[in-house]
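tool_call predict_complex ligand=NAP
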Amino acid sequence: MKPIFYITGSSRGIGKALVEHALKTNNCYVYGISRKQSVEHERYNHISIDLSDANMLNGLELPFDAEADKVILINNAGMLGKVSPFGKQDNELIIKTHILNAIAPAVLSNWIIKKYSETASQIVILNVSSGAARYPVASWGNYCSSKASLDMLSRVISLENSNGKVKTFAVAPGVVDTEMQSEIRQASSSDFPDLQRFKDYKDNEQLSDVREVAERLMRIVNNPEGYKDTLLDVRKL
Ligand SMILES: NC(=O)c1ccc[n+]([C@@H]2O[C@H](COP(=O)([O-])OP(=O)(O)OC[C@H]3O[C@@H](n4cnc5c(N)ncnc54)[C@H](OP(=O)(O)O)[C@@H]3O)[C@@H](O)[C@H]2O)c1
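tool_result ok
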């Protein structure tokens, strides 16, 4: 058994914790994909890509290993975009948020299924979604809608692969103590009506630890047959 992981957003937060957890799997190899590198390991290779750059994605080629038995793609890289209502958004950030959160996972999913469907015995795609994909949050329009797109992408890939060789999930990780949360707390109260709720999560120590969240996500990766739904929430597992 030679598992190969491709994990985006590997330089910090949930993605880095996922890389560190994955590297505990015997014999596995991990490719981390983000703009910066922060992991060093003999079974880790870093690929520096700006996944919000459409031109970069258009010509994307990743390392391929014909001997990989199980391949896992974790589309974790994500951004909040500008926390503002529509009318005060910035076009460049609208575009980047949708490319990073929704288009990059579609391109990478297409790549991994195309490359490995003849050689690997199993392909697992785990998309790190958000509760905000499933209900509207004022001033998070691009985040909510791009994560909703990621949920639907996951449902379509599941539908296309009902034979079980390709298992796909979109998982909301809960509210996790990362840089993304500190970015949320820095929003202006006039633009973000829910600001106090997020400050309270931090003050009341209600944020989840990245290592616990990574451990729960890896349970899905290690036992994909154990989960029949495509859309999951780690708080309900
Ligand atoms: N934290 C939460 O409470 C929470 C809640 C729900 C969902 N999520 C989701 O969980 C995932 C991880 O979030 P996090 O909280 O760990 O965020 P984070 O701490 O901000 O880390 C984001 C990661 O994505 C990478 N990234 C950002 N922009 C990128 C780009 N243009 N190209 C390539 N990589 C890029 C960053 O690496 P570089 O800067 O090195 O590129 C970093 O490794 C995201 O999809 C987020 O939407 C988080």
